[in-house]
Input
Amino acid sequence: MQSTRSFGAGSRYCRGSAAAALLMLASACASTDGPRPVGHLPAVAVENLDERALLLLLADRETYEPIAVSRALDGGAELRRQAALTLGRVGDRRGAPALEALLGDSSAQVRQAAAFALGEVGEQSGEDLSEALLGAVLDADRETGRLAVEALAKLGAPLETVIERLIEVPSEELFPRLLPSLFRFDGDAVVRWAEQGLEQPEPAQRAMAAYALARNPRPEGAPLLRTLLMDDDSQIRGWAARGIGRVGERADVERLRPLAGDAAPGPIIQALRAVRRLVTDGKTPAPADWRPLLLELIKDPRPGVRLTAIEVAAVWLLDEDLSDALVGFVSSGVRRERELALLALAEGEDPRAAALLVRLAGDPDPVMRARVAEAAGFFRAAEVLEQLATDDSPGVRTAALDTRLAGDPPEAAELVLTALADGDPAVRASALAWARENPVFEMPELLAAMAVTWRDRQPDARVAGVRALLARAGAAEEERERIVESLEVLAGDAEFLVRRQAAGALADLGLEPPAVGAAHGDRSVQIYRQIVQQTHRPRRVDLVTERGSVRLELACPEAPFTCLNFLQLASQGYYDGLTFHRVVPDFVVQAGDPRGDGWGGPGYAIRDEMNLLRYSRGAVGMALSGPDTGGSQFFVTLAPQPHLDGGYTIFGRVIAGEEVLDEIVQGDRILRIVEAPGP
Output
């Protein structure tokens, strides 16, 4: 749900055409509170400063203002490009005509931004913008055509429709425009076009054809994936292994075996996961000849390989040598080795796991106790879970609740009712998520749970409560009227995310949703000017970890709020001592959570800033739990992740120390993040 209110709404709306007049009006409507620019950089002269400040204001408040947009569109190419991206971020369908006009701009960079932004606007507003984008598919600029195809895929356009238009371009242009987004389409034709893409001489095009086969694999694409297991490109070998894990068969275990000795870690990691999936899906018994490989791989010096081998070992239990090795990790391994070994022993039903659960339920490390709560689910260790349900650590209580509810026990409603009174918002959010899927609680119980959430600094539980109320409205018609009244109150919440969720719920109930207002309205215009000045160029930081230092270049012009928020937190020492609480080998390393369990943040949320940067290896992105929920958690990709493009704000990239990324283990600490000399 997007705001339709202009800033300074109603009779206070200013119809002056000058940017200065608009800025004066916005200044009168805003306080000086809120996050501020950081550092002591001298004021710099930035072209079109006022117009750029206005565009930041619109994006930050998620507000469409035609006068400000028109002012920017009258400027130079770079200002028009920024205006296009802003319209995409605001997501108001009233901006679509301007974006369609920009598809004919004289600047290729402007046309690229417009094509990308139309995909964002259509996705948020439900607007059908396919015809304009189909025209842009034929643009003389290849990148514009590629982004138009991407936008069409995001909007759900049929692949056949896009192909019909693409065949009008010169033959050498078809695949460069199609293949990067082919994985986003549905239908059998994906395999057919991917097969043709594999015949292209350009390595990047072949890679994206392989990705289309592997990302959402189809059984008819399995023969092609099997041939790619022997490809010269290690990234393609890894992708192929991932796809085979989902659509393969028993005979594929032998085809995957050579990858266990691959020179690159990615194919090994993906092959191990693929075999595990084939076993757990019932397509093959655990292959006995892989046991010696596992015993070697759990000692591999590369952390990603070693930890993945420990993680998947459960399907080969009960094997005496492998079980003994896992018990050894639980006793004397580093924290992540201990956690994964315990989970593998429990999943593999090793008889020693039960005693280990009882002992480790009192481990001094709350992260370890949370893993005990997960592992207890494999043994239905009720006493252990009951103990952990009242643990001092909210992360442990959340893990215990999730495990207890996983089997949908008869006492689930009672467990949830108790959790709804918990003092921690993450515990209550988890309980309310169950209430959404199982709308058994009556209005008084849900309202009592919602009342507790008003004290929360972060809105997670209130957002989950809105969803639970909507589900209850569908299950109990007699309570609908009271639920609507409650949702109307929540639509006036101080937190934008709650207002938006409540307005969306009212719309889902067939009612006219109220305007949710601006996402942020508490920053003065002078703050926006300063933000423009401090983000007009990239800035660099050193991410200093226990494993070494990584230098990041922050893409401040492309994601100004995100970069400045990151710099502000870093300058306050916010990240000092925090852990990498999530590390997924061959995917991402993630940090920035003061709780250490994935639920934490700074107590506020920032706007998404989707842009045209791509998730190659070493891209720095903002972690989210939904639109506009970023705060302090960030991640760095360990391998290309095209499916994240346009879905998570990219705000930087690794420019030095890339090798350190592969050494980081979940639980490792950030020592500090400090700004480094710029370019």
User: Anything to note?
Assistant: DSSP finds 33 helices and eight strands in the chain. Confidence is low (pLDDT under 50) at residues 1-35.
